[in-house]
Backbone:
């Protein structure tokens, strides 16, 4: 095999020829589902509790943080898994201001948020998944960039 053939081969490009690898669900998808359920649960409970240290609040928060920590150290094995990590990044470290506030206009011009939003929307289109709707609907969503 000459150099050109090797460099363009699937082995050199890191492409798997194994059909079983493609049909296995990326573990990140399940971690993300657990993270999203816990975060939604925490937000749903928040208006009912003045005490954020209520046992059910702490339980939801602990589950969210556990999944977050696991996803931080996991490598995506699919576009779906990559999308999950991008949404996690958007939700946990993305824009902080409510849509329409003065701060949101500054964030809307932030190159890092602009690029992250474009990558997330692009990956969503490649995976045929619905656009992510923020857990807090008042926050800027990727489609608003």
Residues:
């Amino acid at each position: 095999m000459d150099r050109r053939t090797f460099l363009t081969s699937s082995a050199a490009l890191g492409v798997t020829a194994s059909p079983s690898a493609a049909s296995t669900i990326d573990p990140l998808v399940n971690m993300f589902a657990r993270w999203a359920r816990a975060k939604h649960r925490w937000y749903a409970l928040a208006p009912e509790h003045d005490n954020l240290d209520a046992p059910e609040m702490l339980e939801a928060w602990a589950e969210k943080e556990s999944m977050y920590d696991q996803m931080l150290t996991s490598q995506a094995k699919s576009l779906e898994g990559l999308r999950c990590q991008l949404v996690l990044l958007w939700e946990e470290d993305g824009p902080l201001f409510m849509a329409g506030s003065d701060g949101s206009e500054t964030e809307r011009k932030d190159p890092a948020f602009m690029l992250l939003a474009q990558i997330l929307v692009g990956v969503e289109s490649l995976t045929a998944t619905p656009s992510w709707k923020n857990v807090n609907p008042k926050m800027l969503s990727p489609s608003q960039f």
About this structure: The two ends are 47 Å apart (CA to CA). DSSP finds eight helices and no strands in the chain. The longest helix spans residues 27-45. The helical segments are 3-7, 10-13, 19-23, 27-45, 55-72, 79-93, 102-108, 111-127.
